[in-house]
Specification:
CATH class: Few Secondary Structures
Distance between the termini: 16 Å
Shape: elongated
Radius of gyration: 15 Å
CATH topology: Factor Xa Inhibitor
Order of helices and strands: HEEHEH
Number of helices: 3
Helix content: 25-40%
Structural class: alpha+beta
Length: about 60
């Protein structure tokens, strides 16, 4: 039987053309009034997944 892709992971992780795993940064969903503008700008955009998580996430995505 084929393995199924983890649906929670596929919604959160994008794979680049070169094969890197990219994710959104945590902490930009709520309680933004008390966070400084500098902090919210720092949290914008995507970042690469940590090497410790890479192997596990690839298995969850079926890559």
């Amino acid at each position: 039987m084929k393995n199924k892709t983890h649906s929670g992971t596929k919604k959160r992780i994008k794979v680049t053309g070169s094969g890197k795993l990219m994710r959104e940064k945590a902490g930009k969903r709520h309680l933004l009034e008390k966070k400084s503008s500098h902090k919210t700008r720092e949290l914008a955009g995507e970042t690469e997944v940590a090497p410790q998580d890479d192997k596990r996430l690839r298995r969850m995505l079926g890559i």
